[in-house]
């Protein structure tokens, strides 16, 4: 487990709309653009092997895309190379961060100086959600998966630790980039679960208000 003192002030960032990484989560990525191939190669030379996943946002009326203020850094824990030179990697979520400023020049990919303050619990033990009602939550999730024509291993969901269940669904469900950012920025596991339930209920309602969690 990494400590705050292990976290660098500057990291490479990978702006990817809709891609969500959360602390203690795992995100597989397929890397093929030359600038990001270079990013992976440089990352593997560092002691920390961290890459910051962050979502770009469009500035209204300009078409300009800026980085969101908060992202999540993941440690490169899995790597393989295909015959045609692409990389298949896995990032293990370590901690969220707040962007201080973007570093200009020197690399083909983007880098930022970041602040890790305020996210100390990301480096701690698995979070608990004392108000979590698994049976009600899985019933709601079942309606959502049916409506969205999604499939899953229900036996694994029933047995998964609460944090793993909530964070995995937050990462995998087909929400908008804005909704993913809200899930990322949730200050606690309980808040993230409440946000997740709200998003699922909204998708189920379709404006009718018929589907609500009891």
TrEMBL record:
One Gene Ontology MF term: peptidase activity
Q: Where is the Lon N-terminal domain?
A: 11-204
Residue spans making up a coiled coil are none
Query: Which spans are transmembrane here?
Result: none
What InterPro entries has UniProt attached to this entry?
Answer: Lon_prtase_N, Lon_prtase_N_sf, PUA-like_sf
Q: Which UniProt keywords apply?
A: Hydrolase, Protease
Q: Does the keyword Plastid apply?
A: no
Q: Which GO terms describe its biological process?
A: proteolysis
Domain of life, per lineage: Bacteria
Record carries keyword Protease: yes
Q: What is this protein called?
A: ATP-dependent protease
This protein's species is Paragemmobacter ruber
